[in-house]
Amino acid sequence: MNKMVLSLRKIKKTHNYGTEQAIPVLKGIDLELPAGKVVAIVAPSGAGKSTLLHIAGLLDDEYGGEVHLSGQDMSRANDAARTAARRQEIGFIYQFHHLLPEFSALENIVLPQLANGTPRRQAIDKAMDLLSRVGVADRASHRPAALSGGQQQRVAFCRALANSPRLLLADEPTGNLDPATSEQVFSALMGLVRETGMAALIATHNMELAARMDRTIRLDAGRISAKAS
Fold first, then answer.
1. Which of 169, 141, 176, 192 lies closest to 58, judged by CA?
2. What does the alpha-carbon distance between residue 186 and residue 171 come to, in Å, rounded to a whole number?
């Protein structure tokens, strides 16, 4: 039986958009994500998928329910423990890359590893391996401004995997990519999940990609309304 990397239990979240009454966004989400599996979240805009990813990624601590990461209840963890878990165990990919503009592609991937205590030579080797997997090793010395949008997103993908996270969270990671680049990034992602045994939770509007993942869940009106293996 696969080890459970992420368990969400009865997750509830409300937002106050300047009104007197809070608006419920998530209404009791239960989700389990085992090691080595890729799960897609499909949802209409505003259904709460980004909110759910933020809670799963320990970026939001104002919610009801429990978030368990590798068996540990992180909903009761202090700020230092949550920060350490984000740095060591969780990788994030967003629709927009958020690369550091003053550093090269290589440095953007090396820096998180150095912050995590990885020796510099080892960090460089890991970064170059990841860049090669997504076809941009020849752009390693270029800063983000000198890269195309697709190249920037591939570098961001590599950065998310730099510290070999147990859990990868992605919010529309191929939303700004052309079909060929999207396929390359997705194939690299699936290959690394299989090799490393990490778990991945990916929000996407691309139903073709979702169909190729291990499982698809639908989030609608704050609830998981349908599941498909």
1. 169
2. 13
| Closest to 108 (Cα-Cα) out of 143, 62, 146 | 143
Q: Quick one: pLDDT at residue 74?
A: 92
Tokens representing 187? 């194939």
Of 125, 60, 43, 92, nearest to 198 (Cα)?
Answer: 92
For helices 149-161 and 105-115, angle between their N-to-C axes, nearest 10 degrees:
20
* Region for 120 from its dihedrals, namely left if φ exceeds 0, alpha if ψ lies in -120 to 50, beta otherwise: alpha
Q: Angle 120-133/149-161 helices, nearest 10 degrees? A: 130
Beta strands in the chain (DSSP E): 4-15, 23-34, 38-42, 64-69, 72-73, 90-93, 167-171, 199-203, 215-220, 223-228
| pLDDT band per the 50, 70, 90 thresholds, residue 57 | very high
Query: The dihedral of CA 162, 163, 164, 166: what is its sign?
Result: negative
Q: How far apart are the first and last CA of the chain?
A: 17
**What's the whole-model pTM score?**
0.86
Q: How far apart are CA 11 and CA 149, in angstroms?
A: 34
Count of residues in the chain: 229
CATH number at 4-228: 3.40.50.300
DSSP conformation class of 3: P
Examine the pLDDT at 17 and tell me if it is beyond 60: yes
